Amino acid sequence: MLDRDIGEYRSCSFHWDCENCTKNLCISLVGVAELPSLYGHFKILGFANNKDHKDHIAVVKGEVPGKDGVLTRLHSSCLTGDALGSLRCDCGPQLHTALALLEKERHGILLYMQQEGRGIGLVNKIRAYQLQDEGFDTYDANLHLGFEPDERDYEVSAAMLDKLGIRSVRLLTNNPDKVKQLQSYGVEVTEHVPLEAPTQEHDEHYMRTKKERFGHRLRL
User: Fold this and answer.
1) What would the pLDDT profile of 103-113 be if each residue is shown by its tens digit?
2) Over the stretch 185-220, which tens digit does the pLDDT of each residue have?
3) How many other C-beta atoms are found inside a 10 Å radius of the C-beta of residue 84?
4) Between β-strands 168-172 and 70-76, what pairing exists: parallel, antiparallel or unpaired?
5) What is the value of pTM for the model shown?
6) Is residue 193 within 8 Å of residue 108, measured between CB atoms?
7) What is the CATH number of the domain that holds 52?
8) Helix-then-strand count for the chain, H and E
9) ∠161-164-169 over CA atoms, to 5°?
10) Angle between helices 155-163 and 176-184 (to 10 degrees)
């Protein structure tokens, strides 16, 4: 199914000024390509939407449309962790582990969402880092900058899953808010699969904050 014309996925012509798109979330799959990687061979899918106007992608292993219990990772972009190897967070290890698990599973999907810094953006994340260097934890740093502790919303993620015909997911996450939000947007979560990376000296306080203040399910 993923090899067919991407037009088959479109439920809306997706013009910003069309009556439907001014009232409702409209999402369109605009490109599909092969993605050979260090972790296996995947397809990469590009989406556009009229809610946040950001470019989100899906990395897909196998034929997932119409399947139940698809192993799924919602991964928020983290330039510092994913690309620069930062040890301040567990984002890089979670991303790499998730891709390896999808390859092993032979069917699955990773949604890479442009929601840097829990939704506050890259530059504000660096400002939050500066506050953390001064003694704030990651929760209070966001508050000090005038944001909610976590600004992320997963409505677009749910729409991407719906667009691909995924009926239910096994969600790779330690964050109960992701489960709650997906369910509120109509996605059935059949299993909560933990994805915990070992802590180290640079992220130990960050990980403890995620557990104690954000309610993440971590053993530490």
Assistant:
1) 999 999 999 99
2) 999 999 999 999 999 999 999 999 999 999 999 988
3) 9
4) parallel
5) 0.89
6) no
7) 3.40.50.10990
8) 8, 7
9) 45
10) 60
